[in-house]
Specification:
This protein is α/β, with parallel strands linked by helices. It has one domain: Vaccinia Virus protein VP39 (Rossmann fold, 3-Layer(aba) Sandwich). The chain is 35% helix and 18% strand. Strand 2, helix 5 and strand 3 form a beta-alpha-beta unit. Helix 10 crosses helix 11. It is globular and about 55 Å long. The protein starts with 6 loop residues before the first helix and ends with a strand.
């Protein structure tokens, strides 16, 4: 595929190619995008990461304050990003399109005694409901977005002090590309990367601070989850497990963008 035009155009083209072809999706026994919210609960002891450090730096900045310090967590899931800095804010606002994720977020905030508010819906459509916050956090949501500039503009406008976005170095499902070939004969186009995201920001006149880092190795992928992601029936989970065993361990390179 030849990519021309603006960085935003390239992002759109790259993201469009990650869609599942309709003929494959039609054979899926259940949605390949289903996630169990309970798997997204925030850790009780948040790890120190460049993303958390960047958020704490925003919340620790000196300057005039109007009301309590607030953190807006866009695509919050269970609240991993915002609950990691909850001790430094008076209010967390979680935005997610999945009501189950918001239930997990709300339950965890309640258990920890953290003041919170939830907003159900897609970003940036619900940005007015979410309001303005001192720090806006957005972890592992960027690759879900095709029209990137409006998404980024809404994040920026919502932030009094700054935005922290966390992404994997390339589209998080790109590692499955060999399995799409194996099980469907589908050869995927190259994925979008964090560098592509930076290019879109720069095109918008935003020069983000970029920090690359690596997460600890994760447990082996669940073959049943991978089979569902590949639109395969459960009776092929054994084949998927065999295929996963042949994939070498991969580094979990993560990128923190802040502006």
């Amino acid at each position: 595929m030849t990519r021309t035009g603006t960085a935003a155009d390239r992002w759109r083209e790259l993201q469009d190619t990650r869609g599942i072809p309709p003929e494959i999706l039609a054979t899926a026994p259940e949605s390949p995008w289903r996630h169990d919210p309970k798997h997204f609960a925030a850790p009780a002891d948040p790890p120190d990461t460049p993303s958390r450090d960047a958020a704490l730096a925003l919340l620790g900045e000196e300057g005039p304050r109007r009301g309590p310090l607030t953190v807006l967590d866009v695509g919050c899931g269970g609240g991993t990003a915002s609950l990691a800095v909850a001790d430094h804010a008076e209010l967390l606002v979680g935005v997610d399109h999945n009501p189950g994720m918001l239930e997990v977020f709300a339950a965890d905030c309640t258990t920890r005694g953290v003041a919170f508010r939830t907003v159900l819906g897609e970003w940036p459509a619900v940005h007015d409901q979410a309001g303005i916050a001192d720090a806006v956090l957005c972890h592992h949501v960027g690759y879900n977005t095709v029209e990137f500039p409006p998404f980024l503009i809404a994040l920026t406008v919502a932030a009094r002090r700054g935005v922290v976005m966390e992404l994997t170095a390339q589209h998080p499902m790109a590692w499955l590309d060999p399995l799409w070939v194996r099980f469907h004969g589908l050869h995927r186009e190259p994925p979008a990367t964090a560098d592509d995201a930076v290019a879109v920001l720069q095109e918008m006149g935003i020069q983000p601070t970029v920090v690359r880092w690596e997460r600890p190795a994760r447990l082996p992928e669940d073959p049943e989850w991978v089979a569902r992601r590949l639109c395969l029936p459960l009776d092929r989970v054994g084949e998927v497990a065999e295929a996963l065993a042949e994939i070498p361990p991969r580094p979990r390179v993560t990128v923190t963008l802040s502006w």
